[in-house]
Amino acid sequence: MDTSQLTVEHVMPQNHNLSQSWKRMLGNNWEEVHDKYLHTLGNLTLTAYNSELSDRPFDEKKNIQGGFKDSPLRLNRMLSTSTEWNAEQIQQRATALAGQATEIWIFPSEVPHELYAKYVQNKELLPVNQNVEEQFPFLRGRLLEVYEQLRERIVALSSEVREEVKKQYIAYKLDTNFVDIEPQKKCLRLSINMPYKDVHDPKGICKDISNTSRWGNGEVEVKLQRLDEIADVLDVIRQAVN
Q1: pLDDT digit string (tens) for 162-217?
Q2: Is 102 buried (19+), middle (13-18) or exposed (0-12) by CB count in 10 A?
């Protein structure tokens, strides 16, 4: 079928001024149901007849020409057989669709480090620089392990990543430095080369160093101490690469 004309349709209409028909179908708490379930998976579908369906009562949306009963989409099968549409039906459909989604897009069962190893084990990584430990006395024990795992992930971002060991930090480059790592006594201090105003930082791990004199390039600073922090730090580094 031609999918180019399909748009998102809210089965329960977006209009907050619902018709009496919709209010009766949703029940006495129709306002609460509308607010809670309007934009959720169970209430969303696809149609080429969005304007025709509009805010019509559910029975009309189902039975008019181009309605849910006419739809060739499997996505609309439950809608074509339902006699009413309320919180219960929305939740049932959401559960069914979510179940199908988890079968189609299966989440990896491997733990993160196993998953990483599985997909980069055949990648030709940069050779390990044997002088790093000698040049940076703080790279020992736990901090060295954190650095090595971060390094692997940085190098895996692109086959064109280059590594340069400077006097005070280790630089990772594409056309220019995108992240510099300065080993400190208790952590790795990263300078990430992007404007601070552009960084997406939901975890609040970044610091604005645009007006600070530091080693490295960029306006974003992140400090890394533990292995479980690497994923969040790498997300910021990817932003600089992109």
Answers
A1: 988 888 899 999 989 999 999 999 999 999 999 999 999 999 999 998 887 776 67
A2: exposed
**Cα atoms in the 13 Å half-sphere on the side-chain side of 61:** 27
- Type and span of the H or E element at 94: helix 87-104
Is residue 86 within 8 Å of residue 32, measured between CB atoms? Answer: no
d(CA 70, CA 57): 16
Residue 123 has pLDDT above 60, yes or no: no
Sign of the CA dihedral 152, 156, 158, 160? positive
The partner residues of 222 in beta bridges, in order of sequence, read 190
Distances (CA, A) of 132 to 153, 213, 218, 222: 17, 24, 22, 20
| pTM score of the predicted model | 0.49
Write the CB contacts of 114 (distance below 8 Å, at least 6 apart in sequence): none
Q: Which residues of 15-35 are buried (b: 16+ CB within 10 A; e: fewer)?
A: eeebeeebeebbeeebeebbe
Rounded CA-CA distance 169/181 in Å is 5
